[in-house]
């Protein structure tokens, strides 16, 4: 069923359009090679992903800062795998990870086709908790930046999703009202509940098959958004 009255579409970036897991895995493969880190890359990534998600939750909740997130997620993963890495090297890996991450440009299947479909009829925007310097590079390098009128990130807004301040900041920047706007993202707490609380329409990009409330619209493939927009 097509949603009526929508003029502005706000997307999350990481894990929604930009394939964070794939690009992150390739980044670790690269920086481990650059620094001769002797570790099974696939084992590392498998251990890292849930640790990273937990640290991002702590970051959203203002319990850690950016520097702690970047260092501790690596340190904890090495510890879980019983691999000793000196702090100086962890710091270097943390820094190089951010430098190289945006050089990888994999998007979720159907991203360009969806954006081409939406662009003529809607104004498109990004709301992301990702770091300012990295998010612009990701969008430019993956060639999706021209599709979007505005990009709001947590560092610019001063707070992170699901805080209503970042959504209000994005709405004001886009010159949009909640009633004519929709938020599409993969994170139930940050994207969906955060936007819904302000009166935006919401759709969960549920590619990871999370169990959510039955009344929440969800899609598992980006192409499925066409049934609503």
TrEMBL record:
Q: Which superkingdom heads the taxonomic lineage of this protein's source?
A: Bacteria
Name of the protein: Noncanonical pyrimidine nucleotidase, YjjG family
**Gene Ontology MF, one:** 5'-nucleotidase activity
Organism for this UniProt entry: Subsaximicrobium wynnwilliamsii
What PANTHER family does this protein's entry cite? Answer: PTHR47478, PYRIMIDINE 5'-NUCLEOTIDASE YJJG (PTHR47478:SF1)
A Pfam family that the UniProt record links to this protein: Hydrolase
């Amino acid at each position: 069923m097509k949603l009526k009255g929508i003029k502005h579409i706000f997307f999350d970036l990481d894990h929604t359009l930009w394939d964070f897991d794939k690009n992150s895995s390739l980044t670790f493969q690269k920086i481990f090679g650059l620094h001769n880190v002797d570790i099974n890359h696939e084992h590392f990534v498998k251990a890292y992903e849930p640790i990273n998600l937990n640290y991002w939750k702590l970051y959203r909740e203002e319990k850690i800062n950016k520097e702690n997130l970047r260092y501790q997620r690596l340190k904890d993963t090495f510890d879980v795998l019983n691999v000793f890495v000196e702090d100086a090297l962890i710091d270097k890996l943390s820094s190089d990870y951010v430098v190289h991450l945006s050089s990888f440009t994999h998007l979720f299947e159907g991203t360009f086709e969806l954006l081409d479909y939406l662009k003529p009829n809607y104004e498109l925007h990004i709301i992301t908790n990702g770091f300012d310097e990295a998010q612009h590079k990701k969008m430019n390098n993956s060639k999706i930046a021209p599709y979007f009128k505005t990009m709001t990130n947590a560092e610019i807004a001063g707070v992170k999703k699901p805080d209503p301040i970042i959504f209000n900041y994005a709405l004001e920047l886009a010159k949009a009202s909640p009633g004519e706007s929709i938020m599409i993202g993969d994170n139930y707490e940050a994207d969906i509940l955060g936007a819904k609380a302000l009166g935006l329409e919401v759709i969960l990009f549920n590619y990871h098959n999370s169990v959510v409330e039955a009344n929440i619209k969800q899609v598992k493939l980006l192409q499925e958004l066409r049934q609503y927009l």
